[in-house]
Amino acid sequence: MNEHISLQQVTLRFETLTVLENIDLSLTKGEFVVLLGPSGCGKSTILNLLAGFTQPQQGRVLCGGEPVRQPHPSRGMIFQQPNLFPWLNVLENVTFGPRLRKHNRAEVDARAREWLARVGLAGFEDHAPWQLSGGMKQRVALARAWLPGPEVLLLDEPFGALDAQTRMMMQELLRAAWLETQTTLLFVTHDVEEALFLADRVLVMSARPGRIVEDIRLPFGRERDIETLASEPHYGDIKHHVLQRVRQEAKRHLAPLNEGER
Ligand SMILES: Nc1ncnc2c1ncn2[C@@H]1O[C@H](COP(=O)(O)OP(=O)(O)OP(=O)(O)O)[C@@H](O)[C@H]1O
């Protein structure tokens, strides 16, 4: 198998709290995988491991067959908050990393303008972050993440704070960029419909300690229309199944709390 990134028998603890226990997970090159699971099951922790922000106590974290030991521009990350520098304009925010690494300024600026146009922000290069809406700021974050040409993008609920309309537009934009670049994407969300529109494959995690309890390859094909996807054969059944599975795990997670409340 053409494995690109993986966790192999990974266990991660924060002091006495075991977050992940002997977890296995792998993505092939160019695959778009969405990770769903109850709050606190370790989804962000998995992204942090693959980004190289955290190291496991046991097991291996691999990218391209090599151990992941530290962050690298070839593995980008996008968070729920766009985290733009307020004192820099849009273009400067997007080009900040490559400029820090002393890449050719004119070349980086030209590519940044291309990415800004692709995410619908042509003409906003000189704007300050405070002049942008939440969706526009997140578009800047997308352009910034894609500029260095990452092999892997790790996305932690990137559209979670956006309104429904903006969210749909961002989902379409992300899929278009992915189809064009064939980047390997691991995307965390709580939204099952978002997962079904975006992913090749949906992974459902158990409550903590997190492991993968469902691995579902979606049959919807690469060309998807967000407005008609729900009428695809099997959409309803798959949505029902995934929702049920996620709820089951969330209930397991909350059970001790309910008992404690009695
Ligand atoms: N640096 C840290 N130190 C101690 N505990 C941590 C740390 N980071 C995460 N945790 C704990 O690890 C567990 C998993 O956290 P994580 O953020 O990975 O969950 P998640 O599945 O992404 O949750 P959510 O869906 O709510 O964002 C949580 O119980 C959290 O409190």
Question: Describe it for me?
Answer:
The chain is of the alpha/beta class and 262 residues long. It folds into two domains: 1-40 and 47-74 and 155-251, P-loop containing nucleotide triphosphate hydrolases (Rossmann fold, 3-Layer(aba) Sandwich); 84-149, no CATH class. It is 38% helix and 24% strand. The strands form two sheets. The protein has a six-stranded mixed beta sheet with strand order 6-7-8-3-9-10, with helices on both faces. The site of adenosine-5'-triphosphate has 11 residues, from strand 2 and helix 1. InterPro entries: AAA+_ATPase, ABC_transporter-like_ATP-bd, ABC_transporter-like_CS, ABC_transporter_ATP-bind, P-loop_NTPase. Residues 5-232 form the ABC transporter domain. GO terms for molecular function: ATP binding; ATP hydrolysis activity.
Write the layout of secondary structure elements.
Layout lengths: L2 E12 L2 E12 L3 E5 L6 H9 L6 E6 L2 E2 L7 E4 L11 H11 L4 H14 L15 H13 L5 E5 L7 H18 L2 E5 L3 H7 L2 E5 L6 E6 L17 H27 L1
Parallel strand pairs: 3-8, 3-9, 6-7, 7-8
Antiparallel strand pairs: 1-2, 1-4, 4-5, 9-10
Helix pairs in contact: 2-3, 2-4, 3-4
The chain binds adenosine-5'-triphosphate.
Question: What ligand molecules are bound, each kind once?
Answer: adenosine-5'-triphosphate
Percentage of β-strand residues: 15-25%
CATH architecture tag of the largest domain: 3-Layer(aba) Sandwich
| Radius of gyration over C-alpha positions, nearest whole angstrom | 19 Å
Q: Globular, elongated, flat, extended or rod-shaped: what is the shape?
A: globular
The total count of helices amounts to 7
Let me know the largest β-sheet.
Answer: 6 strands, mixed
Pfam families: ABC_tran
Family: Belongs to the ABC transporter superfamily. Drug exporter-2 (TC 3.A.1.117) family.
Keywords: ATP-binding, Nucleotide-binding, Transport
InterPro entries: AAA+_ATPase (IPR003593), ABC_transporter-like_ATP-bd (IPR003439), ABC_transporter-like_CS (IPR017871), ABC_transporter_ATP-bind (IPR050166), P-loop_NTPase (IPR027417)
